[in-house]
Amino acid sequence: MDLKQENELIKWDAEYAMKECEKRADSRYLEKDYVVAQFLKEFSQMARDKGYLN
């Protein structure tokens, strides 16, 4: 496993998720900071529910 390459792929996934949040905000006339904050809240809760985070 090439950790540097894996980190680059994870960064790409995060950039994709950010663009999707921005598109969601624009399409629903919401503030981008609100959509991103809600995404982070939901993502973190899902990770905790799956036992990935404490």
> What is the count of helical runs?
2
Given helix and strand content, the structural type is mainly alpha
What is the H-and-E element order? HH
What composes the largest sheet? none
Count of β-strands: 0
Portion of residues in beta strands equals under 5%
The helix fraction, in percent, is: over 70%
| Shape designation | flat
Give the total of domains: 1
Name the average pLDDT: 97
Straight-line distance between termini: 26 Å
Radius of gyration from the CA trace?
Answer: 14 Å
Task: Please give the structural blueprint.
Elements: H1 3-28, H2 32-49
Helix pairs in contact: 1-2
Structural description of this entry:
The two termini are 26 Å apart. The protein has one domain (3-50). The longest helix is centred in the first third of the chain and has 26 residues, at 3-28. It has helices at 3-28, 32-49. The protein is mainly α and 54 residues long. It has two helices and no strands.
Q: Which short descriptors sum up this protein?
A:
54 residues; mainly alpha; 2 helices; 81% helix; 0% strand; flat
Task: Tell me briefly what this model is.
With 54 residues, the protein is an all-alpha fold.
